[in-house]
């Protein structure tokens, strides 16, 4: 029984420079991913958005590759999200079960499609975790607003929070191909069916929508926070102007009657 295991290891992997140093058999590459055959029925799939997928790698080989890979990563994580899928080949028909897939032939394009979907799943796990953290932080400010009628966040911190949210939304839009079938499936009906079945098995569209809805909630709350802070700042500015005018009037009157 073969095994695909995928990890989310960083925010970014420099696939262009990585490609120049890896000497295994390159089967597919573009600006965002590299797919290698590294031995007999042994494959490696690397994605620019920070995930790596292995087929038939030992734990020791995976650790060794990560040690090498860290030099080509931005924000290499101390702990990884991972997902895996068992693969049985030579079966009468393609069939997807719980944590296992049966396939008729172990062609590289078929294995690549499997590894792609497992990688998308683990990347969604990571993005979902990041979204939950943003939601928790947003809820803390919302609860404080409810209890005390004020926000305990500065304008600078709010801007950084908004930037973090928008950056995560952009990464998701750029790096997940859940609603776009890979080009290889366009002229291969069987490969297209396998891809759609895998996407459905991992609940990728539903999980993607959950993440998107969570980020939209965060974004809407942050827009409200921004309006509140702008109002607070405008009120403060008005009071400053009133005080300055009052000081000027007092100074004028003092000069007139002294």
Can I get a quick summary?
This protein is α+β, with helices and mostly antiparallel strands.
Structure, described:
Helix content is 57%, strand content 19%. The chain has six helices and ten strands. Strand 9 and strand 10 (100-103) form a beta hairpin. It has a domain at 2-106: 2-Layer Sandwich (TATA-Binding Protein), CATH 3.30.310. The chain has helices spanning 15-21, 59-69, 108-148, 155-175, 189-201, 204-257, and strands spanning 2-8, 12-13, 25-29, 33-39, 42-47, 51-55, 73-74, 81-89, 95-97, 100-103. Helix 3 packs antiparallel against helix 4 (155-175), helix 3 (108-148) runs parallel beside helix 5 (189-201) and helix 3 packs parallel to helix 6 (204-257). The protein is an alpha+beta fold and 258 residues long. The strands form two sheets. The protein has an eight-stranded mixed beta sheet, covered by helices on one side. Strands 2-7 form a two-stranded antiparallel ribbon.
